[in-house]
Design brief:
Blueprint lengths: L10 E3 L6 E3 L12 E3 L4 E4 L11 E3 L4 E5 L10 E3 L4 E4 L12 E3 L4 E2 L15 E3 L21 E3 L18 E3 L6 E2 L9 E3 L4 E5 L10 E3 L4 E5 L9 E3 L4 E5 L7 E3 L4 E4 L15 E3 L6 E2 L13 E3 L4 E5 L12 E3 L4 E6 L1 H4 L6 E3 L4 E5 L1 H5 L5
Length: about 375
């Protein structure tokens, strides 16, 4: 409480310590205080309202603070970090925060709706409210905010449709909510996730601009998965109703499992090392045909799952080039022949699954030589 006597104090920074107990209410009496940073401690209890302070930044993240979010009246606030606490209730008023750029309130117990005024703030750019119990719709005001770079509200209870946000977005995550309807376009350039909702209809692959992380899994998207865009990074299309030709493997991680794909794409120019894929999950589709030619160029693969399809032909000899393979699952297909020299080259293999095929011979001597298996 002696902090309240330091009337000329402008900054309090106690972050990354082992502080316990309650927040010192006397800080609320410091008229000149501009920055408060008590993040990464174990402070508990409720916060006072900071209605008489002209704060520019508060960082209370990663504590055990509870109660409602504090009232903040300062129009000078630039950054608010209240994430990873136990705050409950609704949002505080925002319309007066004309300098606010960042608001982080993820991993709390907040309810209510995201206010429309949020994206109407003139220079607002980053919002994270993941892991709460927010309801209502996504704010339509965000459509016109060309400065917004991050919008993340994953794992809440938000309903309605997804408006067309500005293309200025770098990261957009609304996964694991209750969103419905169709999606007109993709509008984030680095990370984009709409996984775990109730979205349907054809996916707008022609608008893809994502280059690091893309996830539309666990929805009801259908139609073809266009391969006109050369994906980078992680791509997850699993648990939908996509049909037709499998997308070309321009990613490092590609999951198309639990769909209705039927055809392997023709990759006539594939050479060893052409593709950067390390994980390829194609299980539980309706894919038929041979796969040896398709696997040419995948020598960086570590995980390959093509189980529960209608693949046929001899055991793929091109797998011999995948010498980094750790996990291989070809269960429940119609592959025939024997497991011989191909498997002998997979020295890093830890798990091999080929059940429910037409394999005629297994060389136990070779298998026993795979010391990681």
């Amino acid at each position: 409480n002696c902090l309240g006597d330091l009337h000329n104090l402008t900054l309090v920074r106690f972050s990354n310590n082992l502080l316990k107990g309650t927040f010192p209410f006397s800080i609320g009496n410091l008229e000149k205080i501009r920055v408060i940073d008590i993040s990464y401690n174990s402070l508990s209890g409720i916060l006072p309202n900071f209605t008489s302070l002209e704060l520019t930044s508060i960082k209370f993240s990663n504590n055990l603070l509870s109660g409602n979010l504090p009232l903040l009246s300062s129009p000078l606030l630039i950054s608010i970090e209240l994430d990873n606490n136990q705050f409950a209730g609704d949002f505080f008023p925002l319309s007066h925060m004309v300098h606010l750029e960042n608001l982080y309130i993820q991993s709390n117990r907040l309810t209510g709706e995201i206010p429309e005024e949020l994206c109407q703030l003139p220079i607002f750019s980053q919002f994270n409210a993941n892991d709460n119990s927010l309801r209502g719709n996504l704010p339509r005001s965000c459509v016109n905010n060309t400065l917004l770079s991050t919008f993340s509200v994953a794992r809440n209870k938000i309903e309605g449709t997804i408006p067309a946000f500005s293309n200025s977005l770098q990261a957009f995550d609304v996964s694991n909510n209750l969103l419905e309807g169709t999606l007109d376009r993709v509008f984030a350039s680095v990370e984009f996730s709409v996984a775990g909702n109730r979205l349907s209809g054809p996916f707008p692959f022609s608008t893809m601009i994502v280059n690091r992380y893309f996830n539309c899994s666990y929805n009801n998207f259908d139609g073809s998965a266009s391969d006109s865009y050369e994906y980078n990074g992680i791509v997850d299309l699993s648990h939908n109703q996509f049909t037709g030709v499998v997308p070309r493997p321009f990613a490092t991680y590609l999951d198309i499992s639990y769909n209705q794909f039927t055809t392997i794409p023709n990759l006539p120019s594939a050479r060893e090392g052409d593709f950067a894929l390390t994980v390829l999950l194609m299980n539980n589709n309706m894919i038929s045909g041979g796969i040896s030619n398709y696997l040419l160029g995948f020598n960086k693969l570590k995980t390959l799952d093509m189980s529960n399809n209608f693949l046929y032909g001899a055991f793929p000899s091109s797998l011999a080039n995948c010498r980094d393979l750790v996990y291989l699952n070809l269960n429940s297909n119609e592959l025939y022949g024997g497991l011989g020299l191909v498997v002998s080259r997979l020295n890093k293999l830890e798990e091999l699954r080929v059940a429910n095929n037409k394999i005629a011979a297994i060389d136990i001597g070779i298998i026993s030589g795979l010391t990681q298996l």
